[in-house]
Design a protein that fits this description.
It is a single chain. With about 775 residues, this protein is an alpha+beta fold. The protein folds into three domains: about 190 residues, no CATH class; about 210 residues, no CATH class; about 170 residues, no CATH class. About 50% of the residues lie in helices and about 15% in strands. The chain has 26 helices and 26 strands. Strand 4 and strand 5 form a beta hairpin. Helix 1 crosses helix 12, helix 12 packs across helix 13 and helix 15 runs antiparallel to helix 22. The longest helix is centred in the middle third of the chain and has 38 residues. The protein starts with a helix and ends with a helix. Pfam families: FtsX, MacB_PCD. It is a multi-pass membrane protein. It comes from Larkinella bovis. This is ABC transporter permease.
């Protein structure tokens, strides 16, 4: 019996080659798209879950409440938090501190280079499962003069010998012993580093980390096996208050599972509010949408063409076939088509995977030895086959032999309405994706082109390190005379991120019970000119005013927070240093465009500091300016490699994820429309076939080609218009919710919906017209004769 079913299904495929091709191609594209998305989603969900003790690893977070602001959430904590948690709570099995990524100069003999890594405390490698090819993870970071390097660095700096136990010089001032060599980090890992330096080295150069009032590094804990994370979070909630004996402090601690931090990183007013998980959910929905669209094609074409198989069903029922066996036959046919489509989909995925990896910056692979992959493919085939074939099987198996053997099958109104409903649903999903594509693209374009309040073009920055820190003023004076250079300055922070904040700001009339958070950064002379920041009132820092070393410039947001009516000339005390506000600058973006502009204080730095040199180049003279920078840099800092960044390029890199999402949305929306149009093309072809005689008669009676095309097209176009009425309210709600995540966002405008509807109508009309025109041009003599 199964062999018979297979033969019948195969013969039907060959008999209706065009419709079989449309069904297989539509399902294959839907499956291929879904597979690519599912691979990406699987990789995202697996991030940071490779650690052996993943279920017990947590990062410590802070909720900070400031006057007049929402509660802010940060992973930055006091540098002495981990050791104290381990000491005070038996529930903590291990605890470690880790810094942000640093770029430091490593030197071995004549080999040197700037490498990226972190400082981490002794328990770090015992908490996380970063394997060592050499060394003991339990002791590798316990010695103050120890460093653990990657295999890549070991090959670079010790190509002919074993790196373990050797000495490597850091920043031309500290010799450290290599106590471990790291294996290559897993792909599904969000913590990147090529070396780990013992925590004591960081403490030695940053005394502030010993204070409870200063934040910066990240704290991680490994809880004992039977500890309840929620109960432990409650225990440590007021830990900072207890340690500082300040019951009025506004800082509360809580735990977040480490492997959830990558996807769940956004907090709003102290509570979790999404993150990359929103993109994961969005693309899961897109994958489902596209698969549904492909299945609807199959269902529509199968039910529309059921008239061709009505007599077959009638004969089978007369000779004794029961409904269940007929349903099994038609479901088997749909599963066969689904299986063939899967083979095509796998081929498409294998061809497209390198391009998809380049686009998403992933390293996804088709691993045929992976049992879960085969389970996924089998599940996808069964789901697609059953979903797409269920309604045709139910419909065809329900036909009564007495009716179908009498003559031509007449569709009931309910069947026609259902088929039209499927077309409406299908195009509703497509229009929804087009609207989403337009709004996402516009938002990303808005971010890329938004006026930041400073000029990111022609602005280069490089690390202020080595001998440059000691000879910065001489370096600046000489560089300003070089060709291509317009202005030189320096800052604690790079142009796109002011990462330091403080509550140590007071002024005349301030409510002493209020704890207000200000961003702050130290700068050198010429900062406003180098950044091209507009002064609202007052003046810039100037060497002509010796008191400027204790004076301040604030932004408009800070002026509003302080409340001075005329802030220039008013007193301000910052970190205990009393000074005068000499200028107010127009608000400019000092951090991500996802957040609003916060109060900012600029102050002069009197001592050496780590930061960046800012170089404003003359327009059109970038190459000349870079040559000047390199020549002067090598003169003053010959022991360091010359490295620089373009601010506009780094700005683009900061929003790379959004750009990737925008590109993916474009491709998937196009695919959804293409698959929908495949189905529409099939239905239009079938309709033209069914109405061949009618078309011939109308032409004999004088109907023009235009009349025929309009007659065949209008029903489909009405369905597309109805789809837009269904899709647009949903699209407005969904995209309004998505845009709320951006503090700086576009407004949704009517034309975005109009473009989506017109695009859908035009594409649908183009698809239908191909068959409609062909039918309208057919010779009526031939069509009436063959009919």
């Amino acid at each position: 019996m199964l062999t018979n079913y297979f033969k019948i299904a195969w013969r039907n495929l060959l008999r209706n080659k065009m419709f079989s091709l449309i069904n297989i191609l539509g399902l294959a594209l839907g499956m291929a798209c879904s597979l690519l998305i599912l691979f990406w989603v699987q990789d995202e969900l697996a991030m940071d879950k490779f650690h052996a003790k993943d279920d017990r690893i947590f990062r410590v977070m802070e909720n900070q409440a400031w006057a007049g602001q929402d509660v802010g959430t940060t992973p930055s904590t006091p540098g002495i938090l981990a050791e104290n948690l381990k000491k005070d709570f038996p529930d903590v099995e291990k605890a470690a501190m880790m810094t942000w990524e640093n770029s430091l100069l490593l030197t071995v003999g004549n080999t040197f280079g700037k490498e990226k890594g972190r400082f981490a405390s002794g328990d770090f490698l015992s908490i996380f499962s970063f394997p060592l090819v050499q060394g003991d993870p339990k002791t590798a970071l316990t010695r103050p003069e120890s460093i653990v390097i990657s295999e890549k660095l070991a090959r670079k700096y010790f190509p002919q010998q074993d790196a373990l136990g050797k000495t490597i010089r850091v920043d031309n001032k500290t010799d450290l012993m290599i106590t471990g060599v790291l294996a290559e980090l897993p792909e599904n890992n969000s913590l990147t580093f090529d070396y780990l330096i013992a925590w004591e080295q960081f403490v030695k150069n940053n005394a502030w980390v010993k204070e409870w009032s200063n934040n910066g590094p990240r704290a991680f804990v490994l809880l004992s096996p039977k500890t309840d994370p929620e109960k432990f979070s409650a225990k440590i909630k007021d830990y900072i208050k207890q340690k500082t004996n300040q019951q009025t402090t506004n800082i509360e601690l809580f735990l977040q599972k480490n492997s959830e931090a990558y996807l769940h990183s956004n907090f709003k007013n102290g509570t979790l509010d999404g993150g990359r998980i929103e993109y994961v959910r969005m693309f899961v929905i897109v994958a489902v949408f596209i698969l549904i669209i492909a299945c609807i094609n199959f269902m529509n074409l199968a039910t529309a063409r059921s008239v061709k198989r009505a007599k077959e069903v009638g004969v089978r029922k007369v000779v004794g076939a029961v409904r269940q066996s007929l349903m099994a036959q038609f479901l088997g046919e749909s599963l066969l088509i689904s299986s063939l489509a899967l083979c095509v989909a796998v081929l498409v995925v294998m061809l497209m995977l390198p391009i998809f990896n380049e686009l998403t910056e992933k390293k996804l692979a088709f691993r045929f030895t992976d049992g879960s992959l085969w389970a996924l493919l089998l599940g996808l085939t069964l789901i697609t086959g059953v979903v797409s074939g269920s309604y045709p099987a139910l419909f065809l198996s329900s036909l009564k032999p007495v009716v179908v053997l009498k003559g031509v099958l007449k569709f009931k109104p309910s069947a026609t309405v259902f088929r039209k409903g499927l077309v409406v649903f299908q195009f509703s999903l497509s229009i929804l994706l087009i609207v989403g594509m337009i709004i996402i693209y516009r938002q990303i374009q808005y971010i890329q082109t938004k006026n930041l309040g400073f000029d990111k073009e022609n602005l280069v920055y490089m690390p202020l390190e080595g001998e440059l820190k000691k000879n910065y003023q001489t370096f600046r004076n000489e560089l300003k005379t070089q060709p291509g250079i317009k202005e030189i300055s320096a800052s604690w922070s790079d142009p796109l991120e002011v990462g330091s904040s403080t509550i140590g700001v007071t002024w005349r009339g301030k409510d002493t019970t209020q704890r207000i958070l200000f961003n702050q950064t130290a700068v050198h002379y010429g900062y406003l000119k180098a950044m091209n920041i507009r002064l609202k009132e007052g003046r810039d820092f100037s060497p002509a005013y010796t008191t400027d070393t204790t004076n301040y410039i604030i932004n408009e947001a800070a002026a509003r927070k302080i409340g001075y009516k005329n802030p220039v000339g008013q007193e301000l005390t910052f970190w205990g240093r009393k000074g005068i506000i000499v200028g107010v600058v127009k608000d400019y973006h000092i951090n991500s465009l996802h957040v609003a502009i916060d109060p900012l204080i600029l102050h002069m730095q009197r001592e050496e500091f780590d930061g960046v040199v800012l170089a404003r180049t003359e327009p059109g003279q970038t190459q000349t300016a870079l040559e000047s920078l390199e020549k002067t840099f090598r003169k003053f800092n010959p022991r360091y490699p010359f490295e620089y960044k373009f601010t506009d390029q780094e700005f683009g890199n900061n929003y790379k994820s959004e750009k990737i999402i925008s590109q993916l949305a474009n491709y998937f929306a196009f695919l959804a429309i293409f698959i929908s149009c495949l189905g529409l093309f099939g239905l239009a072809t079938f309709t033209a076939e069914q109405r061949t005689k009618e078309i011939g008669i109308r032409k004999v009676l004088g109907a023009s080609v235009t009349n025929i095309v309009l007659m065949l097209s209008k029903d489909f176009l009405l369905l597309v218009l109805l789809s837009s009425l269904v899709a647009l309210p949903v699209a407005w709600w969904a995209m309004s919710s998505w845009l709320e995540k951006y503090a700086n966002r576009i407004e949704i405008e009517w034309w975005m919906f109009a473009v989506a509807v017109v695009a859908a109508l035009f594409i649908a009309l183009f698809t239908i017209s191909f068959q409609s025109v062909k039918a309208a041009l057919m010779n009526p003599v031939k069509s009436l004769k063959t009919e």
